[in-house]
Write a structure and sequence with these properties.
Radius of gyration: 26 Å
Length: 545
C-alpha cells in the first residue's frame, strides 16, 4: 500500500501513536511516524506541529521552522504552530521574525507564560531590553514561580550590566529549580563578572559536590578560572571542553597517543588547532617557541585552510596541513597528538607583560609593501589606521558597537582609514565615508572568508589597527602590528582578555580598551583614540621596519 492510500482512520491512529512516543521522549520514533503522516496528508496541522517539535528536539531549527510554517498554512489560527515557529526562529538567530510570530501566538492565547518568556528572549536578542523586561514580567505575573522566566530576566539584566538584579533572578531561578544547570552556570558567571572569582567557584563547586560529572559546570569553572588568570588550574579544568554539551569542542579523530609534555626525541607531534580562527591564531602563541626550535621539524600543525599559507611562511620548519574530513593523509604520520589548548598544561603560559613587540606570524612582505605604497599615496601624510568594527560570531552583537560610536575617531583629520572589515554593510560604509569626509578607503573586501594571507598583508601595511574583539584583533596581534582592541565588559568578554589589564600577554603589541559599562562603547573607543594620539606604538609601521 502506498503512503498516499493509507486510510484516514489509520493516519489518525498513527498520529496519536506519534504523540504518545513524543510524550515518552522517543523523539526519533515520533519523528519517523509524523513524517509518514504528513506525506500521506499534508493538511494535518497537528502532525506538522508534532514534526516541528521533534525537529526542535533534534536540534534542527530550520526543519522545525518549515514544519511550523506548514502547520500555519493549514491552520492560521493555531497557537501551537505560531509559538513553535517563534521558538525555531529564536534558535535560528532571527529575533525580529521571532517577535512577529510570538506576537501572533500571544494574540491567540495571551495567558501562556512560556510564550511571553520566549518573546522576552527574542527582544533580548534584539537588545530591546525594556520590551524584554516587560515580556518576562508578564510571564511572571502569570506564574510567579516560573524558573525559566527568572533565568532569562537575569540574563537580560546581566547583558545590561545590572549584575545585582541579574544575580537576584538567577538565585531565584535556582531556588525554584535546584537542578537547573543553566541557573547554576549563569549565576556563577555573573558573580565572576563582579570580580568575585572565589565566590563564583563556590557556586559551581556546590553543584559539583552532588553532580561531580556535570560537564557544563566543569566547562564554566574552567572559563571562570582562566578569566581570572589562574591558568594552571584553568587549563586543567579546560580539558572538559571535549565532553558533549552546548559548549563542547568536537574532538578530531586521531588515534595516536596524546603528548604529555615529554621530549619529542625522534618522534613526531601532530598539533591540531581548534575552536575557530581567533582561537587558532591565539593558541599558536603558546606553541611558537617549540615550533621555531629544532623540534619544529618534528611537528605537524593541522589548521583551518584559510591559515595554511600564512602558517607555512611563519613556521618554515613545520609541516602545515589543512583541516579535512576525514583528516589529510599526512596527519597519519605522527607518533603523538595534542589539541592546541591542551598543550597549555605543559608549555609556559605565564600571563606576563613582554617588552618584545614582535609577532609570531609573518605576512607576505612584497604584498604588504605594495599595499603600503598605495595607502601612503592616498593618505597624504596622515597616519594610516586600519579599522574593523563588527562581529558576526558568537556574542557578536555584544561585541559590536553602534556605528555612530566611531564618529569622533573618524572625524579626526590626523588619520586616514583603511577598511579591514569583512563583508561590511553598505549602510555602515556610507556612514564611515560620511563621518571621515572621504578619508575611509575601501579596497577589495578583505578575503578573510577564503585566505587570511591577504588579510595579513593588509594589516601589515597600516601604521596601526583599531578593532573590536574579532579575528582581525587576533591576526594583528599575532603579526606584531600595533593594535587597539575595544573589548566589551561583563558577559560579552572572552576569557583571554582577562579582566582589568590593558596589555595582552598573548599579543605584546596590543592595547586593550575596555568598556566602563555594557552600553558605554564610547569609553572603549575613546581609549583607543587616545592611544593613537599619545602612545609610542608597540608595533612598528611596515615603512619603518
Amino acid at each position: 500500500m502506498s503512503v498516499e492510500s493509507i486510510p484516514n482512520d489509520e493516519l489518525t491512529a498513527q498520529r496519536e501513536k506519534a504523540l504518545v512516543e513524543l510524550g515518552n521522549g522517543n523523539v526519533e520514533a515520533a519523528h519517523q511516524i509524523f513524517k509518514l503522516v504528513v506525506r500521506a496528508n499534508s493538511e494535518d496541522s497537528t502532525a506538522w506541529i508534532g514534526l516541528g517539535e521533534c525537529l526542535e528536539q533534534m536540534s534542527n531549527p530550520m526543519g522545525a521552522k518549515s514544519a511550523y510554517n506548514q502547520a500555519r498554512r493549514v491552520n492560521p489560527e493555531s497557537f501551537l504552530a505560531a509559538h513553535g515557529l517563534g521558538r525555531s526562529l529564536i534558535m535560528l538567530d532571527r529575533p525580529q521574525m521571532a517577535v512577529a510570530a510570538l506576537k501572533d501566538a500571544i494574540a491567540l492565547d495571551p495567558n501562556s507564560e512560556a510564550t511571553w518568556c520566549d518573546l522576552g528572549t527574542a527582544y533580548k536578542n534584539l537588545q530591546r531590553y525594556p520590551d524584554a523586561e516587560d515580556s518576562f514580567h508578564n510571564a511572571l505575573s502569570l506564574n510567579p514561580n516560573f524558573s525559566l522566566a527568572h533565568l532569562n530576566l537575569g540574563n537580560c539584566f546581566r547583558e545590561q550590566g545590572d549584575l545585582k538584579k541579574a544575580i537576584a533572578h538567577f538565585e531565584k531561578a535556582l531556588s525554584l529549580d535546584p537542578s537547573s544547570i543553566h541557573a547554576v552556570t549563569n549565576l556563577a558567571a555573573t558573580v565572576s563578572d563582579t570580580g568575585e572569582t572565589d565566590a563564583a567557584i563556590t557556586v559551581i563547586d556546590k553543584h559539583l559536590k552532588s553532580h561531580p560529572d556535570n560537564v557544563e559546570c566543569h566547562q564554566n569553572k574552567a572559563l571562570i578560572l582562566l578569566r581570572a588568570a589562574n591558568l594552571s588550574d584553568g587549563f586543567e579544568e579546560y580539558e572538559w571542553r571535549f565532553q558533549p554539551s552546548r559548549f563542547g569542542v568536537p574532538v578530531r579523530p586521531f588515534p595516536r597517543p596524546k603528548w604529555r609534555g615529554e621530549p619529542l626525541e625522534d618522534r613526531s607531534l601532530l598539533i591540531w588547532l581548534e575552536q575557530g580562527i581567533g582561537d587558532e591564531i591565539l593558541s599558536l602563541s603558546i606553541w611558537k617557541t617549540l615550533l621555531n626550535s629544532e623540534d619544529g621539524r618534528r611537528c605537524i600543525v593541522e589548521c583551518d585552510p584559510r591559515l595554511q599559507d600564512l602558517l607555512k611562511r611563519s613556521f618554515p620548519l613545520v609541516t602545515v596541513v589543512d583541516r579535512q574530513t576525514p583528516p589529510a593523509a599526512r596527519t597519519k604520520e605522527s607518533d603523538l597528538t595534542c589539541a592546541a589548548w591542551s598543550g597549555a598544561r605543559f608549555l609556559d603560559t605565564t600571563p606576563a607583560y613582554s617588552p618584545d613587540k614582535h609577532g609570531y606570524l609573518v605576512a607576505d612582505r612584497a604584498a604588504a609593501l605594495a599595499l603600503r605604497k598605495k595607502y601612503e599615496g592616498l593618505a597624504q601624510g596622515r597616519t594610516i589606521v586600519g579599522l574593523s568594527w563588527s562581529s558576526a560570531a558568537r556574542k557578536g552583537r555584544l561585541k559590536t558597537p553602534p556605528i555612530a560610536s566611531w564618529d569622533a575617531l573618524l572625524q579626526d583629520e590626523d588619520y586616514f582609514f583603511v577598511n579591514l572589515q569583512h563583508a561590511p554593510s553598505e549602510d555602515d560604509l556610507a556612514h564611515l565615508q560620511d563621518k571621515s569626509r572621504g578619508r575611509f578607503y575601501v579596497d577589495k573586501p578583505p578575503q578573510a572568508s577564503t585566505n587570511l594571507d591577504n588579510h595579513a598583508a593588509e594589516l601589515s601595511a597600516v601604521d596601526a589597527v583599531v578593532t573590536i574583539s574579532n579575528s582581525t584583533a587576533h591576526l594583528a596581534g599575532a603579526l606584531g602590528v600595533a593594535v587597539a582592541t575595544a573589548v566589551p565588559s561583563g558577559y560579552g568578554g572572552f576569557w583571554y582578555w582577562f579582566r582589568d589589564r590593558t596589555d595582552s600577554p598573548w599579543y605584546p603589541s596590543m592595547r586593550i580598551c575596555r568598556q566602563t559599562s555594557p552600553e558605554n562603547w564610547q569609553s572603549a573607543i575613546s581609549s583607543a583614540h587616545e592611544w593613537l594620539k599619545t602612545s609610542p606604538w608597540g608595533g612598528k609601521p611596515l615603512s619603518q621596519g
